[in-house]
Structure formats: structure tokens, C-alpha cells
Amino acid sequence: METIVAVTSQNKKTVTKHAGECRNYLIYTIKNNEIVFKKVLKLHDNEILKYTFHEDKSANPKNLLYDVDILLTGSIGPGGVNRLANQNVTAYVIKEKDPDIAIEKLIKGTLEAFAPISHGKHSHGHDEKCENCNGNHDHNH
User: Fold this and answer.
1) Fewer CB within 10 Å, N or C, the chain?
2) The listed CATH number (3.50.50.60, 3.40.109.10, 3.30.160.150, 3.30.420.130) that belongs to domain 2-129
3) SS3 sequence of 30-80
4) pTM (predicted TM-score)
5) Residue burial 30-51, b: 16+ Cβ < 10 Å; e: rest
6) Rounded distance, CA 59 to CA 96, Å?
7) Which residue in 26, 36, 29, 141 sits closest to 78, CA to CA?
8) Domain-by-domain residue ranges, the chain?
9) What's the confidence (pLDDT) of residue 115?
10) Contact at 8 Å (CB) between 83 and 53?
11) C-alpha span between 32 and 130 (Å, rounded)
12) pLDDT in tens, 116-139
């Protein structure tokens, strides 16, 4: 099985913030727990997530990032997370700054991710943490 992961990297070197405004992404193709391909994806102004989410008035807006399985970023809001989830893309906020190390940790299941809270109740997998929960997932936000 193949997994495509996009990492926000405006400077093409580190994991950067602002997924909605990011124009440069590192795209990793992972197969059998190994990186088999890595490339830089450069987006034009009308291809960034912010444009797709807020300015594209077509009935069914498309975005190149809808083709990935996972998005890793330094920051993204709950609305962006929900819109990506509707396209079967799982978005995670991470603290790791080195994209290659982030991917290695993702493969090993040790990447610390902080999912933005967007629903009243939520749950987390074994490698996710929620800064607002302190381990208690039986509450409303």
C-alpha cells in the first residue's frame, strides 16, 4: 500500500506554519514503510488551500493537495482540517521542524501530533496528543 504525505515547507527546508497560505510542499511517497519518492510541489496563488477554501466559487473546488493521504504542518485551523477530511486527507499539526525526521517518525508511529479540536467530542490514536485535553477525552470543548 502506498501513502502520500505532504509537508508544509515554504522554505523547502523545514516544516513551516500556515498550511492555508503555504505555496511549497514536500511530497513524500511511502511504500512498505520506506520513502520511495520525494519531490517539491510549488503552488500558484490560485492553488493554495486558502484560495480553494475561501475564494474558489465553483461547485466542486479541486486542489492538488486533495490527492495526498496525510498533511503535516506547523499550523492549520479546525476549518481547514474539516475541509481536508471531507477530501479524505488527514491533517496533523506537528512540532518537529525537520521534514525527513517527521516522516521517519510517522513511519515508526512515534510522531507527536496535535490535532486541532473541531468537534464537541473527539478521540486520539496512540501517537497523537491534544494540548487541551490532558488525556481526558470524555468532555466537550
Assistant:
1) N
2) 3.30.420.130
3) EECCEEEEEEEEECCHHHCHHHHHHCCCCCCCCCHHHHCCEEEECCCCHHH
4) 0.82
5) beeeeeeeeeebebeeebbbeb
6) 36
7) 141
8) 2-129
9) 66
10) yes
11) 29
12) 654 433 333 333 343 333 333 333
Helix (H) or strand (E) holding 14: none
**pLDDT one-digit tens code per residue, 90-120:** 999 999 999 999 999 999 999 999 866 544 3
Give, in order, the Cα–Cα distances in Å from 113 to each of 49, 104, 118: 20, 14, 15
Q: Rounded to 10 degrees, what is the CA torsion of 119, 125, 130, 135?
A: 110
Q: Looking up cell 493521504, which residue turns up?
A: 69
Backbone angles phi, psi at 116, to 5 degrees: -60, 140
Give the amino acid at 103. Answer: I
**In angstroms, rounded to a whole number, what is the distance separating the alpha carbons of residues 82 and 116?**
10
Residue length of the chain: 141
